[in-house]
Amino acid sequence: MKTPGWATLVGIAIGFLGPLLLASPASRVLGDPARVRTMLFYQLAMWAFLAAVLWIVLAVERRPLASIGLRPPGVRSIASGLALAAVIMWVLTPLNVWLLGKLGLAGFEEGIATAGRMPPWLLAFAVLTAGVVEEVLYRGYPLERIAEWTGSAVLAGAITVIVFALVHWPTWGAGPVLTFVISGAFVTGYYVWQRDLTATIVAHVVTDAMGLIVVPWLSRSGSGSG
C-alpha cells in the first residue's frame, strides 16, 4: 500500500468535489442555472478542474498521462470506444429502462428536457465536456491513484463508480443514478481490464451525443413531419 501525496489528494478532491459544487444548490449564487451564461460557466469550470488535475499529474507528480490511462487516439481506442457505446446503447440502456419501470422510478425525461433547453452549440459543448472531463476526473485519475494506495483496482473502481453516480443525483434523480451505477460498472470494468481511458472517452461522448442530441432531434423531426 502506497501513502498518497498531498498533491494527489488535492487532485482527487478537485475531481470529486468540484463538479459536485457545480451541481449543488450552492452553485445558484453564480446565477440562474437555466441561463446560457451560467450553463457556459459550468462547462468552462469543468475544463478548469481538468486543467488543474492534468497540471498535478504532469508538473507536480511528474508522471506521464499514460499513468491515468490517456493514450493517443489510435484506431484501437476509437474502435473499442464505439463498441462500448454500442453495448451501452443497445444492451444496457434497454435493460436499465426495463429495470426503472419495474422499480417505478423516473427515467431521464426531466434531465433530457433540461438539456434540451440549451442552445445546440452549448449542448454539444456540454456533451464534449462530460465525455472528456468526467472520464479523467471520475475514472482515470482517481481510479489509478486509489488503486495504487489500496492495491486493489476493483475497490478503486467501485469507489469511482459510486461517486460518479451520486454526483449526478441533483441533476438526474434517483432512477438515472441507478443506471449510472450499472453502466458505470460496465465501462469501469473495461477500463480496469485495458487501462484505455481514450476508449471510454469515445464511448462517453458517443452515448451522450446520441441520448441528448441525436435521439431528441430525431423525435422532434418525426413529430414535426407527422
Number of domains in the coordinates? 1
User: What is the CA-CA span between the terminal residues?
Assistant: 62 Å
> Which structural class do you get from the secondary structure elements?
mainly alpha
Shape: globular
Mean of residue pLDDT values = 89
Low-pLDDT stretches: none
How many runs of DSSP E, i.e. beta strands?
Answer: 0
H/E element order: HHHHHHHHH
Radius of gyration: 18 Å
Helix content bin: over 70%
Largest sheet: none
Fraction in beta strands: under 5%
- Number of helical segments with 4 or more residues: 9
Task: List strands and helices in order, with pairings.
Layout: H1 6-23, H2 36-60, H3 75-103, H4 109-116, H5 120-150, H6 153-167, H7 169-172, H8 174-194, H9 197-225
What does this structure look like?
With 226 residues, the protein is mainly alpha-helical. It has one domain (6-225). Helix content is 80%, strand content 0%. The longest helix is centred in the middle third of the chain and has 31 residues, at 120-150. The radius of gyration is 18 Å and the shape is globular. The model has no long low-confidence stretch (mean pLDDT 89).
TL;DR of this structure?
The chain is mainly alpha-helical and 226 residues long. The chain is 80% helix and 0% strand. The chain has nine helices and no strands.
Note the main attributes of this structure.
single chain, 226 residues, mainly alpha
